[in-house]
């Protein structure tokens, strides 16, 4: 499912970044993607996805 329609960022991409790169917050996602940089409607959903992936994170951000 697309979370950020403005930039085509999916929930799978967010989960992959969170788990593989250790992204823990929106600031980290913004460093690696353009998430939230246009309309911002995706930020709330992205935060929920990050919270879901918390037990699976491996290392620190990219």
Automatic annotation (TrEMBL):
Q: Which domain of life is it from?
A: Bacteria
> What Gene Ontology terms describe what this protein does at the molecular function level?
2 iron, 2 sulfur cluster binding; metal ion binding
Query: A Pfam family name for this chain?
Result: Fer2_BFD
The UniProt entry's sequence similarity note says: Belongs to the Bfd family.
So which cofactors does this thing need? [2Fe-2S] cluster
Please verify whether the record's keywords include Phosphoprotein: no
* Species this protein is from: Vibrio galatheae
Q: Which InterPro entries match?
A: BFD-associated_ferredoxin, BFD-like_2Fe2S-bd_dom, BFD-like_2Fe2S-bd_dom_sf
Q: Which UniProt keywords apply?
A: 2Fe-2S, Electron transport, Iron, Iron-sulfur, Metal-binding, Transport
Gene3D superfamilies in alphabetical order:
BFD-like [2Fe-2S]-binding domain
Spell out the protein name for this chain: Bacterioferritin-associated ferredoxin
What are the BFD-like [2Fe-2S]-binding domain coordinates in residue numbering? 2-52
């Amino acid at each position: 499912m697309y979370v950020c329609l403005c930039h085509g960022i999916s929930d799978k991409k967010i989960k992959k970044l969170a788990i593989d790169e250790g992204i823990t917050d929106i600031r980290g996602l913004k460093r690696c993607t353009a998430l939230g940089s246009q309309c911002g409607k995706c930020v709330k959903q992205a935060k929920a996805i990050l919270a879901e992936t918390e037990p699976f994170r491996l290392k620190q951000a990219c």
